[in-house]
Amino acid sequence: MVGRKLFDLTQGWGGTHPFGVPVFVVTHTAPDAWPHQGFTFVTDGVESAVRQAAEMAGDKAVGVAAGDMARQALAAGLIDEFWVDLVPVLLGGGTPFFNAVTDVPLVLDDPDVVQGRGVTHLVYRLHSRA
Predict the structure, then answer these.
(1) How far, CA to CA in Å, does 10 sit from each of 3, 6, 16, 79, 96?
(2) pLDDT tens for residues 55-77?
(3) 3.90.78.10, 1.10.260.40, 2.60.120.10, 3.40.430.10: which CATH number matches 2-128?
């Protein structure tokens, strides 16, 4: 699941999302014409997008892109683990992932760590909420 801002920024990945389809795009207004299969534009909120994605995923996981979509899903109680990929590049700016989270503290379990070449993958499960 992604937000419209990321969708527009990437120009819809040219119709080929790097993680494959289906992709649920949360937006206020769906595009008039989108020629690519596997993209669903959800205009009634994050909760609806997660519900639709979960129904389609069955017993598989549903991923939520970082940023405002993840913050909204977290606030709605729809996130049970966080995947963080650390890459050794300092950009000097950007959007904080959790700057507007109000239901704190969130306690995370110790991470599962996978060391890759030029990246460290961390998976944190949500242990408890405030």
Answers:
(1) 11, 6, 11, 24, 19
(2) 999 999 999 997 889 889 988 88
(3) 3.40.430.10
Neighbours of 62 (CB within 10 A): 18
Residues 6+ apart with CB under 8 A from 14: none
The pTM assigned to this predicted structure is 0.83
The single-letter code of the amino acid at 72 is Q
Spatial distance between the Cα atoms of 23 and 34, rounded to a whole number of angstroms: 13
Domain boundaries, the chain: 2-128
Cα separation, 115 vs 103, in Å, equals: 31
pLDDT tens sequence across 21-68? 899 999 999 998 899 999 999 999 999 999 999 999 999 999 999 788
